Each structure stands twice: as structure tokens, then as C-alpha cells.
Amino acid sequence: MSKNQELGITESKEHNTGEWYAEVVQKAGLANYAPEGMSGFIITRPRGYALWESIQQNLDAKFKKTGVQNAYFPLFIPESYLEREKDIVEGFDPEVAWVTHGGHDELEERLAVRPTSESIIAPYMAQWVRSHRDLPLRVNQWASVVRWEATDTKPFFRTKEFLWQEGHTAHETHDDAWEETITRLDQYQSMYEDLLAIPVLRGQKPDHDKFPGAHTTTTVEALMPDGKSVQAGTSHHLGTSFAEAFDITYSDEDDEIQAAHTTSWGLSWRSLGALIMTHSDDQGLVLPPTIAPEQVVIVPIWQEDTQEEVLSYAEGVKKELEDAGIRVELDAREQHNPGFKFNEWELKGVPVRFEIGPYEVADEEITVVHRPDGESTKEDRDGIAEAVIDHFDEVYAKLYATAEENLAENVREADSREEILGTIGQHGGYVKTPWCGDESCEDVIKEPLSAEIVMCPFDDDEALDDDAVCSICGEQATQTAYFAKNY
Ligand SMILES: [Zn+2]
């Protein structure tokens, strides 16, 4: 990026979503692309990393409250370990990066750069679990993994190395493991809805699209403004397949040896991509106050003769907000005019702006402006630290409502192959339809349109009529399927 490049966003979110997204990410100071020859990798800048840290803190607190401890496992996995669970090998084989040399010496056994860590964590869980008293066992690691996909880089959405957390647990029974799977899915959903202002859909993946070796893969899906779905977090009930492959067994109350039931669950920085994509606009980044590194920016507006009083008033406001634990920035730079500052902080996504000029000082007021829609109101100087909390709630509610409306408007029904193709082709979004469970009935949608079944809602959330038939083949339907194009 040239140093002379203009400050503002030049692409349009509506007409050129991909280019617009890349521009927002770079100009809002979130990430850069890695050097040539390293396509697929990005440099996460402090402003981008701060957002990831907020997601991390939110989830980490939830995990710890529900019995999870953090641990850390090596970046590399011996090939023989990876091969012990055959579905993992087949599922990840084309995307695994291999280390063949240490210094100048060829290794006796190749080491995989972890694409996911079941194969290195499970053998140790097997050592740690002896009896039913050792269960449940729950570990999580915050780490990066590498999947060598040959696709265009899209920061946070598609990168060869990505940051994530992966939780791994072992339980006595199938039902215990299922409860764990859903607990984590609930926590992902609540992180999206309560921190990122993004409503999600939840359900399970079709059998042919499960995590390799899993009994059930559950997912939360978020709809992006371009009509595509993002797989926003997944939680897998692994059944006993990993326990059997890696010997995670325990002696039960009758001293019988049993295979444990395991789960794994992961959420990556794709959540950050969804956050940026969902709320931002043609002026730049838009962030909910819950996660914004600066929740309020104060822009003083002065002439030479009013500078001193305006600035001193603004500093008092800043101090009061800081004392109340609010993240606030006072932009007192003399070399830039207020208009320039407005644009710059809009680009960076600060949710609430305070404008303070001589009139505000005289009337003991503050002009408060909301980033998402520019709505401007006056607040009394007195009690501003409490009043601003209401503004945060309002901004959050506006962002959530817009995303919720987009989701509600973009779930459509269809009851034939032609109608599914036509509806997604024309509008994007989700098309829900009764489905027989057969992969071939997905293929006839996937091939012409690259839309697939992103999830099937749980029966409890959305039950299917007894007499429903698959809209594609006319056989008895077993599930409701949500088709969508996806990231
Ligand atoms: Zn069918």
C-alpha cells in the first residue's frame, strides 16, 4: 500500500464486496498481506489483534466458568500419530504442511504442522484418564493451525494459518458428550449475539459434511450482507472413534474398561471477519461498543480564541469517562481539522463520537453522534458517564437489528430443485427445504450454483412435518436443510 494512498474507502460494499472488505481491513489498520511468496498469510496489526483478544477474553471466561482448563500442545504432529485416526488423515491430507528437515538433517519421520490437534492431544488424554473419577476431562488451547489451501487470501476468512481455540473433552457417556457439544455451541452463539451483535442460526452439518471421524458436527452460521453464509463456529460430538483410535479408556464403577466419549470444538478468527463484514460500511469499519478498542472519541472544535476553554472542558469529560471505565480517546491534534478527524475515526470504527465546541461549553452540553447512522443528540455534561452507556446500548441495538433484519429477510422457502436454484441465484441468503438426507440431492444444487447445505436445524428448534417429502427427489424427508452459498 502506497503511503500517499487516500484515507477513505473507495470501493462500495454493495457492488464490490470483496475489494471493499480488503480495503476496510487494511485502511482501518487491522491487517496487512504477507510478503510475496507467502500468499495466504497475513500480518495482524495491533488494532486487529485487540479485537481478537476481546473475542478470546469473552470465550475464555465462558469456558473457565464451565470446567475448561487451558493447556498447550506442540505445533507439530508426527506422521504416525496423524495416521492413527484414518478419517483425520483422509479429511485433512491435501491441506497438511510437512516438515521434512531439522536444520540440514532429514527427519526420520515427517512432522505435520497441525491442521487441528486431536491426534496430538488424544494420546495424552489417554494417559491422563484412568478411572471414571478422572472424567469429564476438558482442555482447551489457544493456538494457530495451518491448512494449506490454494485459494485467494481473504484476511480472517481465508488464510493458510489462522488463530483459533480448540477444546477437547472426554466423558463417560454419549449423553454427557452431547451435553458438552451443545454447551460449547451455546457459548459460541452467545459470543456472537452478545459481543459481536451478530444473530446466528444453529444446527448440525449433514452427515457427509461432518468433521472427519465425528459422530455429529454442530455449527453456528452467520449470514453476511452479500448473501453468503459463514460457518462461524463448530462443536463436534466425536463419539468413541477417537477414544478407540487413541485408547482413551476408563474403568467404570464396576471396574469394567470403557471407551470414553469425546468432543472437540473450535472457533477461529473468522469470527473477526464476520464482525468486520457484517457491520462496516462505505465509510469504513463499524464496531459495536462491546468490542471497540475506543468506545468514544472526543473531537474538540475550536477557534484560536476558544481553544483553551474547549480543550480543558474536553479533558474534563475524558477524565470522567476514564474514571467510569470507558475506553475513550481525545483527539487534540492541532494539525488536523475536525472534519478530517471525523472521517478518520469513522474509518477506524469508533462507535460514539463526542463533539465539543464553544456552544457545548457555554450550554454545559455535549453533542453525541452514533457511528452507524450519524444520529446526533445533545446530552447534559452532568452525568455524561452514565448517559453514554445508554448510547452504547442504542448503537448495539441498531447494529443487531440491522443484522437481524437482513437474516430474517433472507431465509426463504422453496420446494423444488428449480425453485431452490432460482431463489439462491436471485437473492442469495438461505433457502430452507425438506430433504431426504441423501448427498446426491445436495449435489444437484451444488454443481450448478456452488450452494450447499450449510446446516440442518435441530428438531427441537424446527420440527419437520411427518408427511414432508424431499423437494429434490420426492422421497420421504428426514430433515430440514438450509442451502446457501458460503465462505
Ligand atoms: Zn432427496
UniProtKB/TrEMBL annotation:
EC number per UniProt: 6.1.1.15
Gene3D superfamilies: Anticodon-binding domain, Bira Bifunctional Protein, Domain 2, C-terminal domain of ProRS
EC class name: ligase
Highest taxon above the source species: Archaea
Domain Aminoacyl-transfer RNA synthetases class-II family profile: 19-288
GO molecular function: ATP binding; proline-tRNA ligase activity
InterPro entries registered for this protein in UniProt: aa-tRNA-synt_IIb, aa-tRNA-synth_II, aa-tRNA-synth_II/BPL/LPL, Anticodon-bd, Anticodon-bd_dom_sf, Pro-tRNA-ligase_IIa, Pro-tRNA-ligase_IIa_arc-type, Pro-tRNA_ligase_II_C
Pfam families associated with the record: HGTP_anticodon (PF03129), ProRS-C_1 (PF09180), tRNA-synt_2b (PF00587)
One example of a Gene Ontology biological process annotation: prolyl-tRNA aminoacylation
Location of this chain's protein in the cell: Cytoplasm
Entry keyword annotation includes Methyltransferase: no
Keywords recorded for this protein, A-Z: Aminoacyl-tRNA synthetase, ATP-binding, Cytoplasm, Ligase, Nucleotide-binding, Protein biosynthesis
One Gene Ontology CC term in the entry: cytoplasm
Catalysed reaction, written as an equation: tRNA(Pro) + L-proline + ATP = L-prolyl-tRNA(Pro) + AMP + diphosphate
Keyword match Nucleotide-binding: yes
Written domain comment of the UniProt record: Consists of three domains: the N-terminal catalytic domain, the anticodon-binding domain and the C-terminal extension.
Subunit structure: Homodimer.
HAMAP family: Pro_tRNA_synth_type3
Family: Belongs to the class-II aminoacyl-tRNA synthetase family. ProS type 3 subfamily.
Functional note: Catalyzes the attachment of proline to tRNA(Pro) in a two-step reaction: proline is first activated by ATP to form Pro-AMP and then transferred to the acceptor end of tRNA(Pro).
Name of the protein in question: Proline--tRNA ligase
Lineage, broadest ranks: Archaea, Methanobacteriati, Methanobacteriota, Stenosarchaea group, Halobacteria
Gene: proS
